[in-house]
Amino acid sequence: MAKKILIIVLILLLLIIQTSFISGFWGVFNNFNLIFYILIFYSVIIGFEQSLVLSFIFGILLEPFTLLNFGVTTLCLLLSLFLVNLLFHALFTNKSLYSLLVLLVIGICINNLFVFIFNNFLFLIGLSGFKITLNVEYFSAIIWQSFLGMIFLSVAFTVFKAASRKLNSVFLITE
Predict the structure, then answer these.
(1) What sign for the dihedral angle of Cα 110, 67, 14, 21?
(2) Whole-angstrom Cα distance, residue 16 to residue 25?
(3) Which whole-number Å values give the CA distances from 25 to 17, 20, 40, 59, 90, in the listed order?
(4) SS3 sequence, 143-166?
(5) How confident is the model at residue 146 (pLDDT cuts 50, 70, 90)?
(6) Virtual torsion, Cα 145, 17, 36, 95, nearest 10 deg
(7) Prediction pTM value
(8) Rounded Cα gap, residues 98 and 39, in angstroms
(9) Nearest to 111 by CA among 143, 71, 151, 79
(10) Which conformational region is residue 27 in: left (phi greater than 0), alpha (psi within -120 to 50 degrees), or beta?
(11) What separation, in Å, do the N-terminal and C-terminal C-alpha atoms of the chain show?
């Protein structure tokens, strides 16, 4: 019971940090997507099934804070995590920092692609009030989001590796 309460408090704390503080940063730092970075980290390092539940919860809670139609954020988070997990198990089988960073960049690109496709589809059928255009600012935001995420996940991975034995290499020695 205490663990569930702690998880709920952490979810709400991350939501408050993302929507209140990070979105108010100036310049490129408002591209820092803390929740997405944590979901990628959790999916690759801890467990995929739990990260899907968390992405659904975060998606639903983030919906009122985005300009996108209801459901687009949740759907994009779920699909992005699903594809990142598929790539992780098919191509990046070890839990190294490098595979985590590559999966992060791929996940950011996939998530932004899904947001672009779904929002513009809804715009074409008349359900969205705005269209996302591909311009220099759009691609610059993706690059900065990737760069900031790589810094954050590098620090998170290093701290997690130092604090946990889950990522330590295990060698079988036979004599």
Answers:
(1) positive
(2) 14
(3) 11, 9, 22, 21, 37
(4) HHHHHHHHHHHHHHHHHHHHHCCC
(5) very high
(6) 100
(7) 0.88
(8) 17
(9) 79
(10) left
(11) 47
